[in-house]
Amino acid sequence: MSETHPAQRPARPSIPSSAQPPTAPSVPSTTVEHHVSTGERGAFCSARCTCGWLGPARRARSQARTDADGHLAQTGH
User: Residues with Cβ < 8 Å from 27, sequence gap 6 or more?
Assistant: First the structure.
C-alpha cells in the first residue's frame, strides 16, 4: 500500500466562515397551521410542529408536551 504525499492530495474546497445555511422564508404564524407532535429518539423525547419548530430533547415526555403547549401559546393557537 502506498501513501499519498500531502502535496499530491486533492485540495478540499474552502467554505467561508461567514457562510450561513439557507433559511426558510418567514411566514406569518396566522397563515400557518400548527400541529404539534412528540417523537422519541433513544431515551429522549422532543416536540415538533408542522411550522418547522423543534423543541429541545427532554428525558421526560411530560416536559416535551409542556414545550409543545408553550409553542402553541406563543403562536396563538
Answer: 51
Contact 57, 16 (CB under 8 A): no
Task: Please determine, for residue 73, whether its predicted confidence score (pLDDT) is greater than 90.
Answer: yes
- Specify the long-range contacts of residues 51-59, CB closer than 8 Å, at least 24 apart: 51/27, 51/75, 52/24
The 10 Å CB-count burial string (b at 16+, else e) for 14-45 is: eeeeeeeeeeeeeeeeeeeebebeeeeeeeeb
Q: What is the pLDDT of residue 76?
A: 82
How far apart are alpha carbons 42 and 59 in whole angstroms? 9
Total-model pTM? 0.56
DSSP, collapsed to helix, strand or coil, labels residue 71 as helix
